[in-house]
Design a protein that fits this description.
single chain; Rossmann fold; GMP Synthetase, Chain A, domain 3; alpha/beta; 5-stranded parallel beta sheet; 22% strand; 27 strands
Length: 568
């Protein structure tokens, strides 16, 4: 493995590895009815040609280039080419509305957009308006755009581009990653090369200790436009792990069994959906199978939390491992070594469910503003109530009000064209000292591991002045099989209420029973006094981010009249 500190930029890293591993598979993707593969050498040549094509069309160092594409090789090729010529990539979600694209284009000042489909090219062109973009590239033949093949037809000089990439300073701006906007308009996070390379150095020992086989692969299905997936894609490939681009979340279950990955990254919402499906399927099984499943969960949790199993229980647990856990592992491909959750807090009860079933669920923590990986659990030190120990090179401390503060090479340079927000997020303790990133998350450090308890700005202050954590209540609600999604309300109100999305096939009576059970686990102040069933929160209706985080503020705004009725 090449030395960890050899490269100062992402394109230098990728082109350098292509020299070392020319024939090694790098990317696997579905095209024309079958799986296709791209080697490192092929990747580097395509990066070189796209870089030459962008330069030939006037893209200069510092120019911003929007990328709107699903997970596919062309995304990483374009992204690397843009950075290699000193320009700045601006990844955008394919689910963005025209208004969303317009905000990104206005805010970033992008001169060029690279899109994957005619529909996306049309949306971006509409968002830009007349004369808003100098160049629109499309991977499908689309009138008014430059075809991807034409852009890459300009032959580039790979040794020259690699030499240029080697001279890119680590502090140069690499990309603008726009926050997913759970609270207000998305802000452009300025990530320099050093931030993402700091993440790479931070996980190096973790990857080595996993001792992955040479044919290890990583199934990628979260959008590459999100900071989590964007960085992880570079990190894992740079350790020789082949990326397999999923055809979509709806095919994920089949692809897990087919691709048999060693590594998968996910967000909490996926675990919620999977648990609901598993429990729904369990209801159709025989009474014996249900008892075996329940015993597997019970003993699996005991192994993690204590008290220790006695000799008879250990024997029973070993039998259940063959009868139940082996089947669960096979549904995930049978070779999974790390199923890493990030992007939002994963409830310990939810992770415990999968850990008890024998799946290697590891919760990590990060923010777009921090590269984005701050900490992660490991298979050999996995505390499901924490988000793991900070990565090497990352300093974490807890402020007097409980806020998590971060310092290190991984932190952003600030928010693009937003000095006020930058000053609020990056604050030094003393003049001329290195600033701390104020995350807005509330947490604590226990035995060296970081625990996240809530979002600072999301605390509910009731009419009586009591402070209530909505995340805790929502997690308990969504742990009930009758409830798919939940948002609680109560700011400035006399009591807590809830907006609930029923699980498939559940009615109001089922919801009432679930709320009653949850209330039995809550304090008097936290208990839910009123609730209502609402339509699902989705990306399409604007109530979920593309990484499946609920936009709490938007949900409360959309259902404001119903919330008002709770207290009338």
């Amino acid at each position: 493995m090449p030395a960890e500190d050899k490269w100062n930029s992402l394109p230098a890293l990728m082109l350098g590895l292509a020299r070392s591993w020319p024939d090694r598979p790098m990317l696997r993707f579905w095209r024309n009815g079958g799986w296709r593969s791209l080697t490192w050498a092929e990747f580097a040549l395509q990066v070189t040609d796209i870089a030459a094509g962008l330069r030939a069309r006037g893209i200069c160092p510092g120019d911003r280039v929007l990328i709107v594409a699903e997970n596919r090789p062309e995304f990483l090729i374009a992204d690397t080419a843009i950075m290699a010529i000193g320009a700045v990539s601006v990844p955008a979600y394919t689910t963005n509305t025209v208004a969303d694209h317009a905000h990104l284009l206005r805010d970033s000042g992008a001169r060029c957009a690279i899109t994957s489909t005619a529909k996306l090219a049309s949306a971006v062109a509409e968002a830009a308006g007349l004369g808003g973009l100098d160049l629109v590239v499309c991977m499908e033949d689309t009138p008014g755009t430059v075809p991807w093949g034409t852009l890459g037809a300009t032959r580039g000089d790979l040794p020259m581009l690699a030499a240029e990439a080697d001279q890119i300073p680590s502090g140069r701006l690499a990309c603008l990653i726009y926050t997913s906007g759970t609270g207000g308009a998305p802000k452009g996070v300025m990530l320099p090369h050093r931030a993402m390379l700091a993440n790479r150095r931070g996980i190096a020992s973790f990857i080595r200790r996993l001792a992955l086989p040479r044919d290890a692969c990583y199934l990628s299905f979260l959008p590459l436009s999100h900071a989590y997936e964007h960085t992880v894609a570079y990190l894992l490939t740079s350790f020789g792990i082949e990326i397999v681009f999923s055809r979509g979340a709806e095919r994920l279950s089949a692809e897990l069994a087919e691709v048999r990955p060693q590594v998968v990254t996910a967000v909490p919402r996926l675990f919620e959906v999977l648990r609901a499906r598993i429990l729904a399927g369990l209801e159709k099984q025989s009474a014996l199978q249900q008892r075996l499943f329940e015993a597997t969960l019970r003993l699996g949790l005991r192994r993690m939390d204590g008290p220790p199993l006695n000799a008879l229980e250990r024997a029973e647990d070993a039998v259940l491992d063959r009868l139940v856990r082996r089947k669960v592992r096979q549904r995930f491909g049978g070779r999974l070594m790390a199923l890493v959750s990030g992007g939002a807090r994963l409830d310990p009860d939810l992770s415990g469910f999968f850990l008890a079933l024998g799946l290697p669920v590891l919760q990590g923590y990060g923010q777009t503003e921090a590269g984005p990986v701050v900490s992660v659990n490991t298979p050999w030190e996995n505390d499901r109530r924490s988000v793991g120990r900070p990565l090497p090179g990352v300093t974490v401390r807890i402020a007097g009000d409980g806020e998590v503060l971060i310092r290190g090479a991984l932190t952003m340079d600030g928010y693009w064209n937003n000095p006020e927000a930058t000053a609020a997020a990056l604050r030094p303790e003393l003049p001329d000292s290195e600033p701390w990133l104020h995350t807005g998350d509330v947490g604590e450090i226990v035995n060296g591991a970081l625990r996240i308890t809530d979002r600072k700005r999301d605390f509910i202050k009731t009419l009586s002045g009591e402070m209530v954590s909505p995340a805790r209540i929502e997690s308990l609600l969504m742990a009930e099989p009758e409830i798919a999604q939940a948002v609680v309300a109560g700011e400035g109100r006399p009591a807590i209420s809830a907006l609930l999305v029923p699980a498939e096939g559940q009615d109001a009576a089922a919801l009432e029973g679930a709320v009653r059970r949850v209330n039995g686990r809550l304090t008097t102040v936290e208990r839910i006094r009123r609730f209502a069933a609402v339509e699902p929160f989705t990306v399409e209706n604007g109530l979920l981010t593309p990484t499946m985080k609920v936009k709490r503020r938007m949900v409360l705004q959309v259902h404001a009249a119903r919330v008002d009725q709770f207290y009338s």
